[in-house]
Amino acid sequence: MLNWPPVSGKRMSKRVFAPAHHHGRLRFVLELVIAGLFLQGSGIAQTTGQQQGRPAAGASPTTSPAPAESTSNSLLAPVPAMNQSQYVISPGDVLEVAVFGAPDLSQKTGVNSSGNIYMPLISYVHVGGMHLDDAQSAVEQAYFKNGVLKNPHVSITVTSYSSGVVLMGEVGRPGIYPIVGSGRLFDILAEAGGTSANAGQLVAITHKGSSQPETVFLTNDPARSMEANVSVQQGDTIIVARAGVIYVVGEVLSPNGFLMDEKGQYTVMKAVAMARGLTKFAKPSKARIVRRENGTEQEIAIPLDKILVSEAKDVPMQSNDILFIPPNKGKIAAARSVDVAISLASGLAFYGAFH
Question: What domains appear along the chain, each with residue ranges and CATH number?
Answer without folding.
Answer: 94-160 (3.30.1950.10), 165-242 (3.10.560.10), 244-330 (3.10.560.10)
